[in-house]
Design brief:
Blueprint (H helix, E strand, L loop, with lengths): L1 E4 L5 E3 L4 H17 L18 H11 L7 H14 L4 H8 L4 H4 L7 H9 L4
Antiparallel strand pairs: 1-2
Organism: Halochromatium salexigens
GO molecular function: DNA binding
Keywords: DNA integration, DNA recombination
Length: 124
């Protein structure tokens, strides 16, 4: 997915996994059925651009009965899952768009077993 210009004025692309891709395809089909004139995949019932993702997220969170959860927590959860799965910090940095690995290293403490596995590679 081409993200366009970031807050650091760089362009970046982010690969989508199959679940994310199929979600977008499904959402596009829904949009085509209900608001075929809209250029937006995620749009209001009238086909207009959603002006505030945070507002929409807060509304969905409230309807689901979830409290104390911010949209940025989704990003943190993604990073935590990637670290726990043993994905290299440099790759996580690139996926999250961190300009340096210092920010990404804040997640490293979540997977102490990865450090042990790294040392065990030397035994092979």
């Amino acid at each position: 997915m081409d993200w366009g210009t970031t807050k650091t004025a760089n362009r970046r692309s982010v690969p989508l996994n199959e679940v994310a891709y199929q979600t977008l395809v499904s959402r596009l089909a829904f949009r085509n059925a209900h608001c075929p004139e809209s250029p937006w995949v995620f749009c209001s019932a009238a086909g207009k651009r959603i002006a505030s993702v945070k507002k929409s997220f807060a509304q969905a969170r409230s309807q689901a009965g979830i409290t104390n959860f911010r949209i940025h927590d989704l990003r943190h959860t993604c990073a935590a899952w990637l670290v726990t799965a043993g994905v290299a910090l440099a790759e996580i940095r690139d996926l999250l768009g961190h300009s340096s690995i210092t920010m990404t290293e804040k997640y490293a403490h979540l997977a102490p077993d990865n450090i042990r596995r790294a040392v065990e590679v030397l035994d092979e």
